[in-house]
Design a protein that fits this description.
InterPro entries: C2_dom, C2_domain_sf, C2B_Copine, Copine, Copine_C, VWF_A, vWFA_dom_sf. Belongs to the copine family. This protein has 533 residues and is of the alpha+beta class. Helix content is 21%, strand content 29%. It is built from 12 helices and 27 strands. Strands 16, 17, 20, 21, 23, 24 and 27 form a 7-stranded mixed sheet that branches. Strands 1, 2, 3, 4 and 5 form a 5-stranded antiparallel sheet that branches. The relative contact order is 0.11.
């Protein structure tokens, strides 16, 4: 974190930065943590890192307050306020190189300087390890044969208990088993703590489930990471036998044969490398929505609250816009008669400009939606395929991983062009795009569930979709009973966007597209070294 502060009247400045996070439902700011205090500079480089859980599907609001420390008091009101900056975690992550620069505000009429915030994904969150073990001279447990050994791995918890994290397969009738190599996330094995105890138990498998205990041993990720060596040959000890028999040494040995670490590529690697997320919204203007001037209409513009269309647009769009550098979004409509001649269109620009349907930010999309309600005539039918094909044409022209397209369709009813829509989705499934469908109103949405493809992969004319790219939700499932629309919108966005990173990664993996390298780390003028936060 690199704030640059304005010159102060004092000769000295003791700077500290305070991070606040915001609750989703009550919008209350809570202090998350403070940096160390840095003396005698107007360009402090804070070393302390803040570790936050990141969720693509949530709007995670952050606030950074800067103070000049005047005393040893922990009460911030006792110190001089230097300025503040607001952003979302997605905004930081979505900036080029995950580095965001913002002006500090909060002192009217004064320049407060700037703050630079940098985000880094924690490495041990995405490390996996491939390991293989073998046993030697394990105890014979079966009366008519040898043993059928298998291993159980346990992660130790903070409270001293153990949690099962892996079981090997059973190797039948041998005292010298070689188990298959297996892959496990490092966080599952030791929660990212390389020195945490890992307990491994060895059993003889029995058909009735009463497996016989052969013995156990403990190790750690750090020990295992030495690979195949004399350090990773473990005596399998049965504590009961050891307590009873003086000459007991062990119940055999288990040896680590191989240890390979794999860094899994994540959604954030692509974002950090410059991949842009393009957001398009398509609105249902069919007559079944009701007359927009009447309060019973789903398109009714109440002076007191947003309608369901506006809430869905804002909920999803405000999150996705953090990953689009130009913040220009195409906004389309379908199922309306357009002025001046009453032509029915299933792919028209909400801003009235078919050559340039882009709107500036989500606020621009909302304004274009409100204006179009005043000029078009709601009609029908409900055809999805034209707007899907519209976005697919753009996605088909950029298949190198530099861009990914998300289409949000908001609709009130039964789809009219089901066969064509299925074909459009199957065609789009091999392109860098995802489709979110939000159903508003009281209608039955059985057809939309079929498009979702979670249970049965969607097909058309005998061709199956290459990937699952559709997510459908009915808006009514997210209506908060207390009337808290902010909470409704947060829940909606969380559910419809949760699948996007996996859909994104599935496209990149199938196409063999690797993330572009991130830009080199920022080094301020005259500062040869930067601590990145």
């Amino acid at each position: 974190m690199l704030p640059s502060l304005p010159p102060k009247l004092k000769s000295q400045c003791l700077a500290v930065c305070v991070l606040y996070t915001q609750g989703i439902s009550n919008k209350e700011w809570r202090e998350f943590g403070r940096t160390e205090v840095i003396e005698n500079t107007l360009n402090p480089e804070f070393v302390r890192k803040f570790i936050l859980d990141y969720f693509f599907e949530e709007r995670q609001n952050l606030r950074f307050d800067l103070y000049d420390v005047d005393s040893k008091s922990a009460n911030l009101s006792k110190h001089d306020f230097l300025g503040q900056a607001f952003c979302t975690l997605g905004e930081v992550v979505g900036s080029l190189g995950s580095r965001m620069k913002k002006p500090l505000v909060g002192l009217p009429g004064k320049k407060c300087g700037n703050i630079i915030v940098k985000a880094e994904e924690m490495g041990n969150c995405r490390e996996s390890v491939m390991m293989q073990f073998c046993g030697n001279k394990l105890d014979k447990k079966d009366f008519f044969g040898k043993s059928d050994p298998f291993l159980v791995f346990y992660r130790s918890n903070e409270d001293g208990t153990f949690t099962t994290c892996h079981k090997t397969e059973v190797v039948k009738n041998t005292l010298n088993p070689v188990w298959q190599a297996f892959k496990i996330p490092v966080r599952a094995l030791c929660n990212g703590d390389y020195d945490r105890t890992i307990k491994i138990e060895c059993y003889d498998w029995d058909r009735d489930g009463s497996h016989d205990f052969i013995g156990e041993f403990t190790t750690s990720y750090r020990e295992l990471s030495r690979g195949q060596s004399q350090f990773n040959v473990y005596e399998v000890v049965n504590p009961k036998k050891k307590g009873k028999k003086k000459k007991y040494l062990n119940s055999g040995t288990v040896t680590l044969l191989s240890f390979l670490v794999d860094i899994e590529v994540t959604f954030l690697d692509y974002i950090k490398g410059g991949t842009q997320i393009n957001f398009t919204v398509a609105i249902d203007f069919t007559a079944s929505n009701g007359n927009p001037t009447q309060p019973t209409s789903l398109h009714y513009m109440s002076p007191y609250q947003m309608n369901a269309y506006a809430m869905a647009m804002k909920a999803v769009g405000e999150i996705i816009q953090d990953y689009d550098s130009d913040k220009m979004f195409p906004a389309l409509g379908f199922g309306a008669k357009l002025p001046p001649d009453g032509r029915v269109s299933h792919e028209f620009a909400l801003n009235g400009n078919p050559q340039n349907p882009y709107c500036a930010g989500i606020d621009g999309v909302m304004e274009a939606y409100y204006q179009s309600l005043k000029s078009v005539c709601l009609y029908g039918p409900t055809n999805f395929s034209p707007v899907i094909n519209h976005v697919a044409r753009y996605a088909a022209s950029v298949k190198d991983g530099s861009q990914y397209f998300i289409l949000l369709i908001i609709t009130d009813g039964v789809i009219s062009d089901m066969a064509q829509t299925k074909e459009s989705i199957v065609n789009a499934s091999c392109l860098p795009m995802s489709i979110i469908i939000v159903g508003v109103g009281p209608a039955e949405f059985d057809a939309m569930i079929e498009l979702d493809g979670d249970e049965v992969r969607i097909s058309s004319k005998g061709r199956y979709a290459e990937r699952d790219i559709v997510q459908f939700v009915p808006f009514r499932d997210y209506t908060d009973r207390t009337g808290n629309h902010i909470l409704s919108m947060a829940r909606l966005a969380k559910d419809v966007l949760a699948e996007i990173p996996d859909q994104f990664l599935s496209y990149m993996r199938i196409r063999g597209i690797k993330p572009s390298p991130a830009p080199p780390p920022y080094t301020p003028p005259g500062h040869p070294l930067q601590t990145q936060i």
